[in-house]
Design brief:
single chain, mainly alpha, globular
Length: 276
């Protein structure tokens, strides 16, 4: 039982689960725009997510405590290096315009973790985007939306039209709502200077805000040129599932509630599409 728990914790802590979620959203995009399964872009996004997330999460620890790293963290470092090599392999199979777009999101991810901001803008001696007051959730949502919508389409020479922009808006809103249970969970631990949404408006109004965003997400579906009963039902279903997890979230939930169950919603979404 202990070994199973250790393996499960490694699965979460090494960002495999979140990478599957991002990859699932990218596959959903291909499905929404009737594009055949693109192995190169999906595998690239999977390995790039692991590399990027682990870089953001463990950069500070590895930088300042490299001599006293735990065995688990060293394993994650080696695993991340392997994933980096694999992302490079799949990158060489992508189109040049896709790589240029990837570079933009890569720079944002880099700036998210690396100190670069003037002192009058940063918090707690951390000069990066992650610590700019009130910005964290929107940066993450922007990167997720761009990576999971634009990259699969650009790599398949799909013309960027109004439906693509609406889908990007929906994905941006969806990721913000996915982040809210995390911010509620960390309410007692986050620095007040971060100005997270629950810190600014409280848990009750955070959930109401999430409901408002999901309503926007759902009704945005009706603005698309390519509209079907199936897409409307699917959007409603995923909105209701996401809302349920948001409503049930609180400060006392254990880490697995957000880190596993909430982040499983994109995977559930993909499985419904593939098998229903």
């Amino acid at each position: 039982m202990r070994i199973i728990k250790q393996l499960f914790d490694f699965y979460l802590n090494s960002s495999i689960h979140v990478a599957l979620a991002v990859c699932a959203l990218s596959w959903i995009t291909l499905n929404q725009f009737n594009i055949f399964y693109d192995e190169n872009i999906l595998y690239f996004i999977f390995f790039a997510t692991i590399t990027g997330y682990n870089f953001v999460k463990y950069f500070g620890i590895a930088k300042f405590h490299h001599r006293s790293l735990t065995d688990a963290l060293r394993i994650i470092q080696v695993f991340s290096l392997i994933c980096f090599v694999l992302l490079c392999y799949y990158a060489i199979h992508l189109q040049l315009k896709t790589l240029i777009s990837i570079a933009v999101f890569g720079i944002i991810t880099f700036l998210y973790a690396i100190p670069f901001i003037p002192k009058n803008f940063y918090l707690d001696n951390q000069q990066n985007l992650r610590d700019v007051s009130g910005l964290k959730v929107y940066v993450i949502a922007l990167v997720w939306a761009g990576v999971t919508v634009f990259l699969p389409l650009i790599n398949n020479d799909f013309s960027i039209n109004t439906d693509v922009y609406i889908t990007t808006f929906q994905r941006f809103v969806f990721v913000i709502v996915l982040m809210l249970p995390f911010e509620i969970r960390d309410l007692d631990f986050d620095s007040l200077k971060l100005a997270t949404i629950p810190q600014k408006i409280g848990v009750k109004y955070t959930k109401i805000f999430g409901l408002f965003l999901l309503v926007l997400l759902f009704f945005a579906e009706f603005l698309k040129d390519e509209l079907s009963h199936g897409s409307i039902i699917m959007t409603l279903l995923i909105s209701l599932i996401t809302l349920s997890f948001l409503v049930l979230s609180n400060k006392k939930r254990n880490c697995y509630y957000s880190s596993f169950w909430v982040e499983s919603i994109p995977i559930i979404w993909l499985l419904i599409i593939l098998f229903c």
